[in-house]
Amino acid sequence: MHAMPFSPRSAVKEVQDVVYLAANSFIRAFRRPYYVRDILVQMELIGVGSLSVVILTGFFTGAVLTLQSSSSLAQFGATDLTGRLVAISLVRELGPVLASLMVAGRVGSGMASELGSMLVTEQINAMRALGTDPVKKLVVPRVMATTTMLPVLTIVTDAVGIFGGLFVAVQILRLNSTQYLSSAWDGLVYMDLFGGLLKPVVFGATVALIGCHCGLRTYGGTQGVGRSTTQAVVAASILILVFNLLLTRVILAYT
Amino acid sequence: MIQPALELRDVVKFYGDYTVLDGVSFQVHKGETKIVIGASGSGKSTILKLIMGLEKPDGGRIFVQGRDITDLNESDLTEVRQKLGMVFQESALFDSLTVRENVGYRLYEAGLDDDEVESRVRESLGFVDLADAIDKYPAELSGGMKRRVALARALISNPDIILYDEPTAGLDPVTSRKINELIIALRDLKGVTGVFVTHRMRDAFTLATEYAVNGDGRIRFYREGQDLCIANTRFVMLRDGKIVFEGPDEILRRSDDPYVKRFLA
């Protein structure tokens, strides 16, 4: 198998294709037929399906964050601020980013391999031959489902993370639970919640679009499906981190 | 002059630097089955994809029922595709859907109610003799059954034209025979125009020499006599993206062209 040579031109083409796919999906989302059933199926697959992964991620992240921050804060005699630090870190950064990275690994890869397999077995062509637009039938439901479910999953991650922190704070560090929770609650402002929910919307669209794009440009049979899957996860994960930096800059500028 | 059901006019297609089709022109008349033969990689399947609008030609024009589809966009093509059915090489059934949902796909998409879809799916599956498989998934079917389901899926909207991309490839002789009979029946009893791509001469000659008659509610197949030419079938032979032969089977068999002779041997 020959590898596609990397060149600035092919990179630009790639970006152009993703933007084109995004614009196409957006326009088609408002046109009949709406494929409500497909959207609901995807929402269940993505939302309910990722719940366990996200709960585990949240719990352990919150727990380790509490351990680390309380030991740092102890040097300044400020362990009563542990809850605040944990809550802010989780809601602003770690919740959205980690939930999205997990979903990129779980869902983005799934989309790339599913659409890639459909492409190499000519199911995508068959769909077009039967008069259905694959972007509308396959891409739009996935983008809509991921964009709506990822903020929900982020809320779960944040909540479980704060709970995980509470568990460590009370059970291991012997801190006061009321103090932890009230400091966590006081630390958060509305802008944190807004920013913390805007991010997963952007990341969700990124994961789904990259996953679908990589799937739909699969070439080279079954081997190509594997390659597309890997590329989807890598590209989506890196883009999440890049967009996170950009979004944080913008959100902080308006805080 | 009667308008042809399909027409390719000087069609050119490249894949990268490789010329797949190099100025291909032919017409398919209404009710006729055109058999496109040629070695693997001679551009046979590409012709079907171009007619279906799945790919765009790099030169030339393509007409479906008199309409120039060469420059149509995807949503206008959807309208043209209503008249067309296609049986893909590896069946290309949706593996996440049951046979019922596969065959009825078009009708579900069109928003028909379930009872109507159900009866038409059963009718279509009855034609390919697979009514029992309605609740199965493609993974549970054999290769030959998949082809027949794919045929049933192409048939459901009663298309005027059906494109067959090697529908018998990799099947045993008995199953191939069954598929060929279905295609002959569609041609002779339903007046469907067809384009049949294959590299198997045996299947091609079956299609070119046999015809179907509906007698006493049963479809019977007869072989045409030595000098008769009843079966409404013409051949197109491709070699390196160019047409090297065009005409009925009687002439093809008598051809002096060395390449044609080698292919038939």
Topology summary:
The complex is a heterodimer of chains A (255) and B (265).
Chain A: H1 8-29, H2 36-48, H3 51-74, H4 82-120, H5 123-129, H6 134-171, H7 177-187, H8 190-216, H9 221-253
Helix pairs in contact in A: 1-6, 2-6, 3-4, 3-6, 4-6, 4-7, 4-8, 4-9, 6-7, 6-8, 8-9
Chain B: E1 6-15, E2 18-28, E3 33-38, H1 44-52, E4 59-64, E5 67-68, H2 74-81, E6 84-87, H3 99-103, H4 105-109, H5 114-127, H6 143-155, E7 161-165, H7 173-190, E8 193-198, H8 201-209, E9 210-215, E10 218-223, E11 233-239, E12 242-247, H9 249-254, H10 258-264
Parallel strand pairs in B: 3-8, 3-11, 6-7, 7-8
Antiparallel strand pairs in B: 1-2, 1-4, 4-5, 9-10, 11-12
Helix pairs in contact in B: 5-6
Properties at a glance:
heterodimer, A: 255 residues, mainly alpha, 9 helices, B: 265 residues, alpha/beta, Rossmann fold, 2 domains, 6-stranded mixed beta sheet, 4-stranded antiparallel beta sheet, 10 helices
